[in-house]
Amino acid sequence: MSSRTDQTESRNDSSGDHLPDQREGGAVAEADDPFADPGLPPHEPRRQDIDERAARRSERTVAFLFTLSMLATVGFIASYVAIPIDEIVFIWPFGHISGLNFALGLTLGLALFCIGAGAIHWARTLMSDEEVAEERHAVEATPEVKAHVLEEFAKGAAESQIGRRKLARNTLLGALGLVPLAGVVLLRDLGPLPEDKLHHTAWQEGSLIINEATLQPLRPEDITVGSLTQAMPEGLDPHAENFHAEIAKAAVMLVRLEPEDIKDPRSAEWGHEGILCYSKICTHIGCPATLYEQQSHHALCPCHQSTFDLADGAKVLFGPAGHPLPQLRITVNDEGFLQALGDFEEPPGPSFWERG
């Protein structure tokens, strides 16, 4: 019983007598603040801070990484130009993959990695690593604070040694200047250059006008007054790979009006016996404007309600469309079929002439 009591007293005596009364860094743990700020450890200089040869080696390492980034960017552009898009290669352990995709990913990844690695190595070995504690202050900036910020910025620029380490600085600028070229090159993959393709459609002089539903050539008697017929030029195969690209420009609609109802003399001249042929592609955003109102001769686009007067040169009566529907000049050939006298005089589609 006595032994157990001695052990208890021993534990009670050791609970506080042998604890240190100071934290590391000299801050005293007071009763009302048991977690006192330990302060910052003393700054220990790095080898590069005291040995200029070591600093130069670090600078050369940084310059090597930035130079490797530049070479990788050049390799990215060269791979994009030289490697065919359909070339398949075997690369272990990936197997059979696209040679172009692999080369582009490898070179661009290397270019970005080397910039990051070079910047980190520069910061860890050449820039100042001394930690400074600063008290919190009000959000608003006083003139004194602004002056202090500018002073600290100038001090940071000096401590980064960007002015002194010209080799590292110049290679960094070179790497950062070349990397964006990879993105510029990729813009080429947005698609083929339009050139003047949007100015031309499948219509040409002598093209027969084919009923879009029956795929048969149309005669004037096939189109009655008050009707609307959707058509396309001969030679377009609905199963062909480029059919949708061609029909998106060449789709037309034919309406037949009483000759006295046609207000625009030019429209009457370009038609045949009251049959008028217009592009059915709305000049707003390209929807098919084929909702036809017989009494008013208006064609309505179902997307945004642009309304065109087909009796008056397909002028815009209402809605966001900015231009009339282009009209196709038509006639009848020796066999009695309707045919085109050429292509549209202006590109069909959504306000192309404002962009072309």
TrEMBL record:
Membrane-crossing residue ranges in chain numbering: 62-83, 103-123, 167-187
Basic and acidic residues composition bias: residue spans: 1-24
Membrane topology: Multi-pass membrane protein
Residue ranges constituting the Rieske domain according to the UniProt record: 249-339
InterPro entries hit by this protein: QcrA_N, Rieske_2Fe-2S, Rieske_2Fe-2S_sf, Rieske_Fe-S_prot
Sequence segments annotated as region (Disordered): 1-47
Annotated compartments: Cell membrane
Pfam families according to UniProt: QcrA_N (PF19297), Rieske (PF00355)
Keywords carried by this UniProt record: 2Fe-2S, Cell membrane, Disulfide bond, Electron transport, Iron, Iron-sulfur, Membrane, Metal-binding, Oxidoreductase, Respiratory chain, Transmembrane, Transmembrane helix, Transport
Gene Ontology MF term list: 2 iron, 2 sulfur cluster binding; metal ion binding; monooxygenase activity; oxidoreductase activity, acting on paired donors, with incorporation or reduction of molecular oxygen
Any Gene Ontology CC annotation: plasma membrane
CDD domains: Rieske (cd03467)
PROSITE patterns associated with the record: RIESKE
Protein family (similarity comment): Belongs to the Rieske iron-sulfur protein family.
Protein task: Iron-sulfur subunit of the cytochrome bc1 complex, an essential component of the respiratory electron transport chain required for ATP synthesis. The bc1 complex catalyzes the oxidation of menaquinol and the reduction of cytochrome c in the respiratory chain. The bc1 complex operates through a Q-cycle mechanism that couples electron transfer to generation of the proton gradient that drives ATP synthesis.
Subunit record text: The cytochrome bc1 complex is composed of a cytochrome b (QcrB), the Rieske iron-sulfur protein (QcrA) and a diheme cytochrome c (QcrC) subunit.
Name of the protein in question: Cytochrome bc1 complex Rieske iron-sulfur subunit
Annotated organism of origin: Streptomyces radicis
Lineage: Bacteria, Bacillati, Actinomycetota, Actinomycetes, Kitasatosporales
